[in-house]
Amino acid sequence: MTMTLSNLEAQLTELQEAGTAAISAVADLEVLESLRVSFLGKKGQLSKILGGMGKLDPSDRPKVGKLANEVKTALQSALDETREQLQQAKILEQIAAETIDVTMPGTVRPQGRRHPLASTIDRALDIFVGLGYTVATGPEMESDRYNFSALNMPEDHPARDMQDTFYLPNGNLLRTHTSPVQVRYMEQNDPPIRVVAPGRVYRRDTVDATHSAVFHQVELLAIDKGLTFTDLKGTIGEFIKQMFGDVEIRFRPSYFPFTEPSAEVDVQWKGQWLEVLGCGMVDPNVLKAVGYDPEVYTGFAAGFGIERFAMVLHQIDDIRRVYASDLRFLRQF
Ligand code: DAH
């Protein structure tokens, strides 16, 4: 085909007209890109047309070059404009799709809450922490020494029968109370001591409305120079007041091998005396067992059952309810 000036000019004008029309009709960014390649790309239509320039009379070339530049600019600006419009539309579409209808009802998720035993333990610990006590724990599998002998209950001591014990095949036992934590803590720390120890304990009791083979206690221990029964009474009195409110309380003489003298504390509850804890002045033999000099240090201890506290505070009639994981029961707290 012979190239004439007017022929090339016609092709360029045609490319500009058809090109801009095609570009402005595009509704998709990918299609737009493929049009750009086919019009302005290295092997695109504009390049192809310009390939024919070599056959022109040299004096005609600047004219065609100028026209080609105009075509290129026109196509480029049509591409830019359409791209801009499509991108804008895409953003608007995205915004519309992501709009949140704040009037829609939310997803209701079931809400958990503290178990009554956990919250009773927390409450008791909070009170003692407020009185300057530190929280400690000990193992549930214990040796005879920590559970009994260091607590002034040598082998064959009749007080061992006060607590029916689960013995383990390895010679250890499941602790029957949290009192062994007293011994462990004293072995690891020097006086003065102010410590509370919550934990799980085990007894070979037949399960009924008020007994469980596994239950929880909190142990209290204070050791210092010059501590007396008055300090014990004051501390326990303050604790009971914060736990149960302004109830009447009484100290009743009792017996525990690891305290001397020992007492049990009752509170007035619904017209009756209700026993809530055991306590006493730490027996000198217990202090000796951990290497403390009973002539220099004295102290008091107390222990109480968390289930009993929770049952009184929440008017729970049967201990088995607190272990049953019945949501109808647990949702009440
Ligand atoms: N360990 C006792 C029990 O399980 C409770 C107890 C009584 C703990 C008097 C004490 C205490 O620390 O002083 O029955």
Describe this structure in words.
Helix 1 (5-25) packs antiparallel against helix 3 (45-51), helix 1 (5-25) runs parallel beside helix 4 (61-97) and helix 2 (29-40) packs antiparallel against helix 4. The chain is rod-shaped. It starts with a helix and ends with a helix. Strand 7 (259-269) and strand 8 (272-282) form a beta hairpin. It has eleven helices and nine strands. The model has no long low-confidence stretch (mean pLDDT 93). The strands form two sheets. Strands 1-4-5-9-8-7-6 form a seven-stranded mixed sheet, sandwiched between helices. It has two domains: 5-98; 116-330, BirA Bifunctional Protein, domain 2 (2-Layer Sandwich), CATH 3.30.930.10. With 333 residues, it is α+β, with helices and mostly antiparallel strands.
Percent in strands? 15-25%
**Average pLDDT across residues?**
93
* Gross CATH architecture of the largest domain: 2-Layer Sandwich
Radius of gyration: 44 Å
Number of domains: 2
Q: According to CATH, what is the class of the largest domain?
A: Alpha Beta
- Shape annotation: rod-shaped
Sheet/helix structural class: alpha+beta
Number of helical stretches of at least 4 residues? 11
Low-pLDDT sequence parts = none
In short, what is this structure?
With 333 residues, the protein is of the alpha+beta class. The protein has helices at residues 5-25, 29-40, 45-51, 61-97, 116-130, 144-147, 180-188, 229-244, 284-289, 306-314, 327-330, and strands at residues 134-135, 141-142, 173-174, 193-202, 214-224, 249-256, 259-269, 272-282, 298-305.
